[in-house]
Amino acid sequence: MATLPNPLTSLAASGLQLPPGSLVDATIDGTWHEPLLWCTDAPVAPGDWSRLHAAGQPLGLLPVLIDGGRRDNWPEDWDLVPEDTSSPDDHDPAEVLAAYWASYAPDELGAPPAAWPGLAPTPGGTPPTQSPDDLATEMAGLFTGPEGWFPNVRAALVPARRTADIPAAIGWSGPLNYENDTARLSSVLRSWEDRYGIRVLMLGFDTLTVTVGRPPTTSAEARALAAEHFAFCPDNINQNPPYDLDHYAEKYLLDQATWGFWWD
Fold this sequence. Notes:
Radius of gyration: 18 Å
Distance between the termini: 24 Å
Helix content: 25-40%
Number of helices: 8
Order of helices and strands: EEEEHEHHEHHEEHHHE
Structural class: alpha+beta
Shape: globular
Largest sheet: 7 strands, mixed
Strand content: 15-25%
């Protein structure tokens, strides 16, 4: 996937006041022909997210937190695969999830699972007063800084117009054992942006965290969404005892401000 023109190619001349950082063009196949992202060289403070968002968005750059994990594994070592990544525009999220469900549900969910239920409806009820972008900013503040939940995270700027496209824009390979074209997952993230107000907040080598501006507020809504989460990332259920969609829905989806995903 490519964004034309790529604002990162002229970042030095853009006038942006940025903390010390580096452009990343390293991929699994060698050096890419243009930068894929810009990333800070050190952990970020709580206010850095909002400053990066305000500075980068007018240029077509969006911020994302970068988690190096316990091994300090940063994007230059992530085996990015932009050459193998299509565009989210090429994929229908309902078809993507249905195909995943058909491929994995029979083996992973034990007894013959129900037929693919289709996309869950947008949650009902009164819309939240806080906007999805404001929630993402708030959660970024809680994640970052010495007292934050992830005190060592860095921040990146990625050429993308919506946060759902960030994984595809950099050719992220985190789910490589499950899906080798992240644009298919980004098409689902776009659908979740529209229905649930999600924003991609943080990427790691094989992890993804999103904020949820309009989460399910009833058990029925959460259970309908759980099927999508299983199709999107079966490890979320398979690696979480008691390996049950209803339990997952109640504990991890109902009224939750963030969703996390990890691919083994």
